[in-house]
Write a structure and sequence with these properties.
The structure is a homodimer. By secondary structure, chain A is an alpha+beta fold. Chain A is 32% helix and 26% strand. Chain A has a single domain (9-138), classed as Arc Repressor Mutant, subunit A, CATH 1.10.10.10. Bound molecules: manganese (II) ion (2 copies) and zinc ion (2 copies). The site of one zinc ion has 6 residues of chain B, from strand 4.
Chain lengths: 139, 139
Amino acid sequence: MGQDMSGTSLDFSARLRAAGLRPTRQRVALARVLFEAGHRHVTAESLHAEVKATRIPVSLATVYNTLNQFRDAGLLREVVVAPGRSYFDTNTGHHHHFYVEPDGELHDFPSDKVTVAGLPPPPKGTRLNRVDVIVRVKR
Amino acid sequence: MGQDMSGTSLDFSARLRAAGLRPTRQRVALARVLFEAGHRHVTAESLHAEVKATRIPVSLATVYNTLNQFRDAGLLREVVVAPGRSYFDTNTGHHHHFYVEPDGELHDFPSDKVTVAGLPPPPKGTRLNRVDVIVRVKR
DNA sequence: AAGTTGTTTAGAACAGTTCTAAAAACTGCA
DNA sequence: TGCAGTTTTTAGAACTGTTCTAAACAACTT
Ligand SMILES: [Mn+2]
Ligand SMILES: [Mn+2]
Ligand SMILES: [Zn+2]
Ligand SMILES: [Zn+2]
């Protein structure tokens, strides 16, 4: 009846392995911070600060490497809404964003109730990849 | 009956003055490159390269200063679609963008035929500022 | 023309990100 | 469990786009 935490770290290991990534201490620590709560939007710096609090040593270079690997593996999505820094989004499903200025906060909203109609056809020689809707709001 | 170009530079001077900016040689040269043709999407580097071709000396620092001033004056709009660099858009009206990857090209499309319906209300304590639609396309 | 103020400039500085190459750690196999 | 082979991590350097500094210069006012 006690809470079972024993499998948690193994789950992340398995998930990393499934993505073709060795489950190293650093990657597991980062995956834990990223994926064990609900959906998140982090920057490299913010994630680095968070993982440092877990007392597992992770360099900033590894945070960048790992974010890029996770993104390439489809575990994260990169979001660019403001000059100078990237956000990484644990929600890889189809959704859109509120961007709160000047706080720099990102909030998801589902795309299934949103209709984007009347888009022109893609320019010659290109094909559609994705439609991003960014709702910029002010405090 | 000859073509009248004599007023052109004065027009830019007037426009700059109207925006509260002294019509210096550099600002007029940049305004000319930016606004004398149709709508454009430039980066600081690309604009710097272009204005250098006019043989009027303009430093990169001035290009950045001027782009920021023009944006603050409402003459330009800043567009952020990819990590690492800003685009500046001479089209300040309401419109949306195609972003061609990996070229980094931006193309306008009018927003008056596009419907974005079903957006959730802005988060508590915020008010709507703008809705950006970015259609990402691949070659 | 002189004085005042605003602008431009080269170069330094800065922020975010990527690179380098050496040390450390993971994995498969004895 | 030890070892070899390979991947990962790391500190720090490097790099890119952008901003800052403060001195020279140019525009406007009188
Ligand atoms: Mn990258
Ligand atoms: Mn700026
Ligand atoms: Zn999101
Ligand atoms: Zn545009």
